Give the backbone structure.
Amino acid sequence: MSTPVEANHEAIRPCPRGQPGRRADVLPGDVAVWDRWLDPAVLQVDENDTVRGKSEILKELQLLPKGLAGHLRIAEFRMTLAGDVAVVTHEDDESLDYFGHILWRRAP
């Protein structure tokens, strides 16, 4: 039986500067960092119900073209523990600055 738990924000610590895997390395889509930290059994389900495994996730990582800026914020976070396994789901608020025009995935 699994037990839903609240996120422990104090347990989520940024990696020290200068170490591979810090947030600044993850955000621009550094594939080596994602490859190192993603579990081989990871599954991602997007807003179109497309399910991707690790290899598909890594293939899709790329920088946005010049003039575009993406913004992503976790709006809703859930974690369920089942023994020593944690299952995480989250809803994101995502927007794109497209040459000065803000486009939202959903209305804010």
In short: The longest strand covers residues 68-82. Residues 1-5, 7-18 have pLDDT under 50 and may be disordered. Strands lie at 3-5, 44-45, 51-52, 68-82, 85-98, 101-104. The helical segments are 23-26, 31-37, 54-60.
